[in-house]
Design brief:
single chain; alpha+beta; 434 Repressor (Amino-terminal Domain); six-stranded mixed β-sheet; 18 helices; 10% strand; flat
Length: 433
């Protein structure tokens, strides 16, 4: 049976035409949403058996997904004609084959625009339906509107009445403060909920996220790398559902090589013993093993949970500030898109290569969280001394000590959801203030 390179496109068109979510079709077909996403974008070939499962889940004959690309193109043009309605549109629908034959480029563009319009209409319908039926979303939006109304009414009273008793004025000020906090918390929860919905629909959106999902599944510790024998990256990543793209497998192979080198330089047994004696102090561990700080950072973030170390987070970025690795610290979520807070020690380290930085950071929120952070930046010379210098910065995060012997730095997760209005480093308005 013929399967053209556009089989994935036809799968996507048939799924969207039925209003089926990508995650639902992936579940019914026995594959991950990330893998189905790659198939639908014609980045992975689909086997005969999988094509049969997809066709069955869509309630179609397998021929409907295996036919030439003209079938999907004709369907899109017929849908565009029927959407306009009228006798003229019906008459033109009979000449679709002639139109495709004479103007294939325009036909493809029109069909693509119709598919886009249909997808947007289904999105609007889906949000409308969710607004009406999702109790959490409805309640959260009601909380937002209630808080805004209360703030507006209270502020209007203060503005329109000059002669207000000081006691009542203090009450109004307290009401504004309390309602502001309620609005901030509710909006932040709403943003997080909507982001979760987006992730559920689209699955993993980048090779880096595929690798991080694979590592998270193993607790960021790959036990096989503790062996002295060099690992076989191809064997380790073969058939891993999280690593659906070739780019993700390439990144995974690079991570395996680097993590194995770290494990051999800092053997698990002696390293855990030193951790028990000296605590998670990167400087002491680096001096004890004669290892560079970045290697110690990565090793700390890759220890097995049974090693007894405290919760650890690690963020790595390149010279542009883009994240290249993320292991979130409990209670501290690293942004999925864009950069983090400009005041993070991670970014300060970029301007001070080879100079270690230690700081206690207090992350803004309804209940501010404190963490002990270590940051360092090292130049990498992939092209040798004559090549360009590439910077890599790392920020290790540990629970903050109870004593407040170190000065604390007020930071956020990202400007988008940070409630610190007067922050000098703010680059965009916050949606929770």
């Amino acid at each position: 049976m013929a399967r053209t390179p556009l089989t994935g496109t036809r799968i996507r068109e048939r799924r969207t035409a039925q209003g089926m979510r990508q995650a639902d079709l992936a579940r019914a077909s026995g594959v991950s949403p990330a893998y189905l996403n790659l198939i639908e974008h014609n980045r992975r070939r689909v086997s005969e058996a999988l094509l049969e499962r997809v066709a069955a889940a869509l309630g179609l004959d397998i021929e409907a997904l295996s036919e030439g690309a003209e079938g999907a193109l004709f369907d899109g043009l017929r849908e565009a004609a029927s959407a306009q309605g009228g006798v003229a549109a019906a008459a033109e629908a009979e000449r679709i084959e002639e139109f495709v034959g004479r103007f294939p480029g325009w036909a493809a563009l029109l069909a693509e625009r119709q598919a886009r319009v249909a997808a947007l209409e289904r999105t609007v319908e889906g949000f409308s339906d969710r607004m009406a039926q999702d109790p959490f979303l409805a309640t959260t939006l009601h909380e937002v509107l209630s808080a805004v109304t209360s703030l507006r009414s209270t502020a209007a009273i203060l503005v329109e009445n000059d002669q207000i008793d000081p006691v009542w004025r203090a009450r109004f000020h307290r009401t504004i403060h309390e309602e502001s906090l309620r609005l901030s918390d509710t909006a932040e929860a709403l943003v997080g909920y909507l982001d979760t919905l987006d992730e559920a629909e689209s699955g993993l959106s980048s090779p880096q996220e595929e690798v991080e999902a694979w590592l998270a599944k193993h607790g960021f510790h790959l036990a096989v790398l503790e062996n002295a024998r060099a690992p076989d990256p191809e064997a380790m990543i073969a058939g891993v559902p999280e690593l659906a793209s070739s780019a993700a497998r390439t990144l995974a192979a690079e991570h395996i090589a680097r993590a194995h080198a770290d494990a051999q330089a800092l053997p698990l047994g002696p390293f855990v013993h030193a951790l028990a004696e000296d605590g998670p102090d990167p400087a002491r561990l680096a001096a004890r093993f004669g290892a560079p700080l970045p290697r110690v950072f990565r090793r700390l973030a890759s220890l097995p949970a049974a090693a007894g170390q405290p919760p650890i987070g690690l963020v790595i970025c390149d010279g542009s500030g883009s994240f290249t690795f993320r292991r979130p610290m409990p209670g501290f979520s690293v942004p999925r898109f864009g950069a983090g807070c400009p005041l993070w020690p991670l970014y300060e380290a970029l301007s001070r290569p080879m100079q270690p930085i230690r700081a206690v950071i207090e992350v803004a929120g309804r209940v501010p969280q404190r963490y002990l952070s270590y940051a360092v930046c090292q130049p990498v010379l992939p092209g040798g001394f004559d090549g360009p210098q590439v910077l890599e910065a790392l920020m290790l995060m540990l629970p903050a000590p109870p004593e407040r012997s170190l000065p604390e730095r007020a930071v956020g997760v990202s400007c988008r959801i940070c409630p610190r209005i007067a922050c000098p480093a703010r680059r965009e308005p916050s949606i929770v203030t």
